[in-house]
Structure formats: C-alpha cells, structure tokens
TrEMBL record:
Belongs to the isocitrate lyase/PEP mutase superfamily. InterPro entries: ICL/PEPM, Isocitrate_lyase_ph_CS, Pyrv/PenolPyrv_kinase-like_dom, Pyrv_kinase-like_dom_sf. It catalyses: (2S,3R)-3-hydroxybutane-1,2,3-tricarboxylate = pyruvate + succinate. Residues 1-12 have a biased composition (Polar residues). This is Methylisocitrate lyase. CDD domains: ICL_PEPM.
Amino acid sequence: MTYTNGHANVPTNDGFHAQRMTPGRRLRDLLENKRDIIVAPGVYDGFSARIALEVGFDCIYMTGAGTCASKLGQPDLGLATLNDMREHAEMIANLDPFVPLIADADTGYGGPNNVARAVEQYHRSGVAALHIEDQIQIKRCGHLGGKQVVDIDTFSQRIAAAAQARERIGSDIVIIARTDALQTDNFGEATRRLKAAVRSGADVAFLEGVTSKEEARTICEELSPTPVLLNMVENGATPSWTPEEAQELGFRIVIFPFAAIAPAYEAIRETFERIKKTGRTGLAADFTPKKLFSIVGLKQATAIDAAAGGQLYSRV
C-alpha cells in the first residue's frame, strides 16, 4: 500500500512501517525507487518550509546562504556556526518528518572530530542528508569569487569522518560530498576530489558551479553509479536548467536555494515601500490572521487539543 501524509507518498508494506522510517531512509528510497529527479526547493525559515510542504514537494532543502541571511542577517561567509545551522535544520526537519530535509553543513565546522559531531547532531535533529564541502574553514557562498579549498587529503578526511560517525551511531543520514574545486582548479581536479570522497564514504556527489552541459554530463558519467546533485542557483555560475533538463543530463537531485528567499525579498520590499509612501500595505483581503496560522499548522494544533479532550481552540 501507499502511506499518504498529505505531502508525499512513501511506498511501504504498512502505515506503521512508514512512520518508523528514518528521514535518511526515506531519502534513500526516493533515490533508489523514484524514477524522476528529486526536486528540493530551498527554504530558509519555518514559514517558507511550511509553504513548500503545502505545495507538496517530496523533499526540501535548507539553504546555508538563506539561513545566514534570515537567522543572522549576515552574508554567507562562514559566519554561521554548527549550533546556528543545526538548530535551524532541526526546526525545519520536524515540521513534517515524513518529508526528507537536505541541509547545508558547510565545511563540517572543523577537523574530523568536529565533522563527526556535526553528523551526529544533524542525525539527532531529524535531518535526512547533509553536504560537506572542501572549502577552507573561512568559506563563502559557492557562487562568489575568491574561494579557496583545502587539499584533497583533508577533504577526504572530512568525508571519512562523516561516514564513520554515521556508522558508529547506526544512522541512515545521507552524506553529500561537495567540491568547489571547479572554480579554484579545474574540472579534472574537481572530478578527482569527488571520486576520492565517494571512496571515503559519500553517498551523493555535488559539483558546485557547473558551467556547461558538457561538464554536467561528464561529471554524472564519471561518478556513475553514485547519484549527482545539481545546485540550481539562478543568475549564478550555472546556466538555468529545469528539473527535466537536469535529469536528461544525468542528475538525480536538484536543489533551488534561492527559490523562496529571492521572491520574498522582492515582495517584502515592495510592501514596505508602499507603507512608506501610502501608509497602506495593500495586502490581499483574504490573507487574514487565520489564514496565516492555518499555513503554519493551526489545523494540526486544533486536532491535537481536541483529541486530548480540550476545547481551547474549538472556536478559532
């Protein structure tokens, strides 16, 4: 039968088994059994995550750049700590545990022990997958210039530490190895690093800043059968491809980090400017407080209260 949670259908023998599946196992099932490419829109806070869940995506992505911007009000320059990122990821992952969350984990936040701690904390927070990159500790957004990467041995150690931590705690969390070496070195070096990462235990490969269809096809062929992720940052280093085009190139996952935060900026700024000029927001008449609360779980909260015999929300 199919267990339906309102957002995604999970193949299973029974509903009880579906409820016990870990987030990592659900993502692995999607990678193994879903023929179409996995599309994960970028969410940067609880509200944008709720909207993605409402639309019905099978997977969502917590963007590191969006987390820095929304949680810290800072650029993506390595300023977010493990605690910043883990706390944010835990909140998002647990809004609907049946929809796997892929989360940015930057460089792993230090040496092998730091990387292991990050994996353990992300696992306990309900995160399905995390990606760890080969930039130096003072990292920056992958679509900014001036990046620097660590040597291939250090990168391999980061991935090995992550894989070993996963094994120690009996986790299904998916480890995604990301390299930024395409911009700092060349395609050959980037490929070499991803192959080394897979040998060290990575489940998915992530070549940041792909610049052409030729690079895309080649990296997917070179890494096969390891799934490859596409980072679809609009107006960045990578050409704009649809999920269908990405799948044709060989990718198994596509993330859209700016899908929520870019339109949010435009809409919020426009509304604030209208207030400044006219004193009115111009919001749609149907966007009531109740509609807002319904988006973020009012129905579920009411049901929980009623099931326990309460009447606190019976008239909201």
